[in-house]
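Lab manual, section 2.4: Encoding a predicted structure.

Procedure: take the sequence of the chain (120 residues), apply the prediction step described in section 2.3, and record the output as structure tokens. A sample record is shown.
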Amino acid sequence: MISGIMISLMQIMTVWGLSFFNVKWYNEFSFVFAVEDYWQVFVYHFNNAIEASVPERRRPTVKRNNNKKSYRKSIKQMLSRKSFCRKRRRYIREPSHYLAYKTYSVKCTRTTKAIQAHYQ
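Recorded output:
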């Protein structure tokens, strides 16, 4: 009865494509006399077949910037305005836009340096 069940399980696994790498089942089960031992041998080969045939999922490595500065809301708004002035100066080449960008850039630099000096 047990050997009939094992043979039918082997046939099912062969249909699924898991032939257990041509394990000599007769030799494996010839010295086994208890049902639990049959099961242990079967599970051992089954797990080995799955480990060998199922690919591992590898996550892509993500580079994280741990040196990123975090500022409070008012500083972020200043940096955003500086970025806006820079973009406007880049697209509309007028001296007034360049002057506005330069003055705001200096203001942002001074403020961020003052905050960094305060926290160090």
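Check your result against the sample. The mean pLDDT is 78.
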